[in-house]
Amino acid sequence: MPGRGLRQALLWLSCLIHAMLAAATGLHNASALCQSLSATFRNGTHLPSYGDYLRLSTENWSATAWAKPACIIQPRKTKDLQQVVRTLTSQNISFAIRSGGHMPSPGAANIDDGVLVDMSSFREVSYNATDNTARVGPGQTWGGVYAHLDEYNVTVVGGRVLEVGVGGLVLGCGLSYLSDLYGLACDNVVNFEVVLANGSLVHANEGSNPDLWWALKGGGNNFGIVTAFTLSTYPIHQVWGGVKVYTNNQLPELFSAMLQYQSAPDKDPYANVIFQAFTTNASVGAVLNMVYLKPEMSPAAFNPFYSIPTVNDTTKIQSLTEMISGQMVPPLPRFDWFATSFKPSASLYKEIEALVTAAPEVGTIASLTSGSLALALQPISTSVILASNARGGNALGLQEVNQTWFALDTAYWFSADDETAHNATRGLHAKIESKARKYGKHLPYQFMNDASYDQHVIEHYGTANVAKLKAVQGKYDPGLVFQSLVPGGFKIPK
Predict the structure, then answer these.
(1) Which residues, 6+ apart, have CB-to-CB distance to 463 below 8 Å?
(2) What residue ranges in 297-449 does DSSP mark as E strands?
(3) Integer Cα distance of 435 and 456 in angstroms
(4) Whether the Cβ atoms of residue 284 and residue 125 lie closer than 8 Å to each other
(5) Helix %, strand %, coil % for the chain, to 5?
(6) SS3 sequence of 99-132
(7) Within the chain, how many helices (H) and strands (E) appear?
(8) Alpha-helical regions (H) of 64-198
(9) In degrees rounded to 5, what are phi and psi of residue 454?
(10) Rounded Cα distance, 109 and 97, in Å
(11) Which of 52, 164, 286, 397 is most exposed by smallest CB count within 10 Å?
């Protein structure tokens, strides 16, 4: 007789196969269901024949995520969303969920043939001074959140690009300029309000459904649709910071300065940077976004960078929102990202510098129409992990060491180049990971918010965390609706 573990695995596989077959059978019914939804939610359902359908189906930030859903539904209230989810589940119709739509991965926040649930009407932002929290809807952008909270001289642990949506960033974990002090964005969710696959509304927090609270902190779209986040707020408003721009010829000095900054024995948690280098575009060069979360000029934490001459420098005392607005994003229509992580070292940084300037894959990307490659070094100190643990922990499986979350960002113009761009970026990513392993610096974690669609992000959270996520999934979504009917995004390993 098979053991308990094997029986559970077979049951899980049986449920998944059943759900997948049901989803395939139901695909042709999506159009009929959309007609029914349009009768029920007349002002919130958009069929392909409607004038605003094209605009809404291509509203995702990157054209790589554009799709042709059978219809787009924009629920206005939580009870409407509950009804939509019950209907989609009962009819076995595939669907996608879109918050801000900033993820470039195909299918992550859009869908062909199925139903796109657009959460853009859930744009609440309210501040509670009594308990120092903000209630935020998933359809809001970080720019909207910060603008509202600026009125009270407080902020939240949120995104570093104002146009990014709240929902996807938080559920993917969310790296912030405040993370050294308070952990990741997901760690600062006091309460998730979630619609489950059966249409019920639950709250997930430290005292109620704490297992779901933990799983949503990095678990992506695998458990339900969040209708509201209650976030901790902090009294940070005026800061010193901005953007320093350099030439690509200065990369050796900049990599060296980054290592020195990351290696400080008592790193100042109020200091944070992102270093990007556009190695295919000398006119852009290298860009250092830096911020000190106090209104103090030229803090000592950034001493490694001050001696390097700049092409341009916008650092000054300003609001944090103003500082974030300086983030540079190439004005190109198509993007692909790859993520990895490693412990910083001089030898590894020297190897990476050589690869991102001279590897054949870089030439392939540069040869595309408007082909652009940027690398990003995002320093993560042990303070981030300690702050995360102090707030209940998360699903990410991070090691308590100083580390770099590294990203390759490729941008280009035409859909015909999707495969070439993806394969070239993946090849360069593989070479960088190989060098990290060579020096014993590679770390398993992959940052979901920077990952490409074929990276197995959740698998890298570790065996124990994956098992725990499966258990939570089995409890709150026993029919595996969000595993099978929601095909996009990063799924829990089978």
Answers:
(1) none
(2) 312-313, 316-319, 334-342, 372-380, 403-412, 442-443
(3) 20
(4) no
(5) 40, 20, 40
(6) CCCCCCCCCCCCCCCCEEEECCCCCCEEEECCCC
(7) 17, 19
(8) 78-90, 142-150, 166-172, 179-182
(9) -100, 15
(10) 5
(11) 52
Q: What is the pLDDT of residue 20?
A: 52
Q: What is the distance between the alpha carbons of residues 93 and 190, in angstroms, rounded to a whole number?
A: 32
According to DSSP, the β-strands at 285-292 and 238-246 are antiparallel
Q: Report pLDDT for 56.
A: 97
Structure token pair of residue 315: 């650092």
Question: Rounded to 5 degrees, what are φ and ψ at 414?
Answer: -110, 145
In three-state secondary structure terms, 400 is coil
Burial class (CB in 10 A: 0-12, 13-18, 19+), 113: middle
What is d(CA 339, CA 376) in angstroms, rounded to the nearest whole number? 9
Taking residue 153's Cβ as centre, other Cβ atoms within 10 Å add up to: 11
Nearest to 267 by CA among 395, 382, 161: 382
Give CA–CA dist 432/434, Å, rounded. Answer: 5
Do residues 239 and 247 lie in contact, with contact meaning Cβ atoms separated by under 8 Å? no
CA distance 342 to 406: 8
pTM of this structure: 0.93
- Detail the DSSP E strand segments found in 10-61: 45-46
Which segments of the chain have a pLDDT < 70? 1-28
What is the distance between the terminal CA atoms of the chain, rounded to a whole angstrom?
Answer: 23
Q: Is 360 helix (H, G, I), strand (E, B) or coil?
A: helix
Structure tokens at 252: 């050796």
Report the distance separating Cα 456 and Cα 274, nearest Å. 24
For residue 287, the one-letter residue type is V
Residue type, 93: I
- Residues with Cβ within 8 Å of residue 103, at least 6 apart in sequence: 60, 62, 65, 109, 168, 449, 489
| pLDDT reported for residue 11 | 45
Q: Is 13 helix (H, G, I), strand (E, B) or coil?
A: helix
Cα–Cα dist 246/178, whole Å: 25
CA distance 38 to 87: 13
Burial of 411 (0-12, 13-18, 19+ CB in 10 A): buried
Judge contact between 69 and 113, C-beta under 8 A: yes
> For the chain, what is the largest distance between any 2 Cα atoms, rounded to a whole number of angstroms?
72
CA distance 383 to 392: 15
Are 74 and 101 spatial neighbours (Cβ–Cβ below 8 Å)?
Answer: no
pLDDT of residue 29: 87
